[in-house]
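Subject: for your reference before the review

Hello V.,

The reviewers asked for a structural picture of the protein, and I figured it would be easier to keep everything in one thread rather than splitting it across files. Below is the amino acid sequence we used in the manuscript, unchanged from the supplementary table.
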Amino acid sequence: MSNSENLIYFVDVTNRDGVQTSRLGLAKLQKTIINLMLDDMGISQSEFGFPTTRHELNYLNGNLQLVDRGVITRTKLSGWMRAMAQDVFESFQNVPRLNYCNLSQSTSDQMINGKYQGKKNRDDILKMTVEAVEAAVTCGASIIGVNAEDASRSDLDFLIKFAKETKAAGAKRFRYCDTLGYDDPQTAYERIYKIAKETGMDMEMHFHNDLGMATGCSVLGAKAAIDAGVNAYINTAINGMGERAGNADLVSCLLAVKKSSGFADKYNIDPNIDISKAWKLAKYTSYAFGVPIPINQPAVGKNAFAHESGIHADGALKDRRNYELYDFEELGRGEPEIVETGRMITVGEYGGIKGFRNVFKNLELEFHDEDEARNILELCRYANVHTQLPLTDSELKFIYFYPDIAAKVMTVTPYYIPTGELKKRIESSEKTMPGAII
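And here is what came back from the structure prediction:
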């Protein structure tokens, strides 16, 4: 193994960046189950949402209650916010138990000019970000990361200055965001190595897959960080979910740093990670998003261990290492899965107590009395309305063991305080033309 004391960690951003996939999303209960599964897998951190977004607040606070109760023990839950002091103060007011945060700021001239339309320059960007970091320190954040949005198209000297000044203000990590998937692995290595070497900051690698190189850039970026003498934090999304062509895939990146020729036994990965949980996590996330896992997806795709041609089949049967680089058992695959083809009783929004009790009996979960059973049934009905999908065993068990938190994360209180013209229209009971809606 490597003599370096520095490690490669993983920060999963499915619940923050993955849910920004156009046309798709996750219910708050589903996001919670993903956090529980990430914790079970030993992933270092989950960027679990937006503390300034009001429909997230019950979910965010509810998941931090799971931390307080010792349910989530290994995965740090971090919030994402704009690098603006006002957003930081609002975030910690909304989610008081928040401990970890990443503050995001655009750093490329393209974005500074394109977004701010000439109203901000590099000095303004730097000042805003430093003030945001100072605000996070004031709020008691224990780990503060600064995100350089569009870092791959940003001036390298400015990135180094940006990192150094935010570090002096209290930031612990620098997130190199290849927001458009613009970098190639070699360029990513060179730029990240220089930033890490000159700043001494732990580095986060955040790569998008627009050119199909997110995994390659992520692992080379991690190599650069370790080679420069700091810790590496690879940002990933389960099954590569994310905006446009998606983010770096969690399982692909994990396997790349564990099994590839340039990494195996040369770089140290977070020892808490249990890759045998990968299959279960990938399947649940696919179900929750409603996006099938591609047949040729590394490790978890249906064909990842399938052999048909004569030479390949013969070779694999003689010795699996002939045509398999790693074992399917390592990923939690190989156990037969029972698919019910006869009578099936499910729990849904119109389910009754008899069928409900049958489902929970099969899960080997019992109720103390009829009142307890009917209370859990009501929550399960809400959960079905909430997810619009048949509930999984993990979801049913979560509701059974943590009904109060399940109720909390599924509750979204609309931010509805009409003002101005909207208030006038509502109060006047003004009607629009018939047929305008349908």
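For the response letter, the relevant points are probably these. The mean pLDDT is 92. The CA atoms of residues 162 and 243 lie 26 Å apart.

Happy to draft the paragraph if you're swamped.

O.
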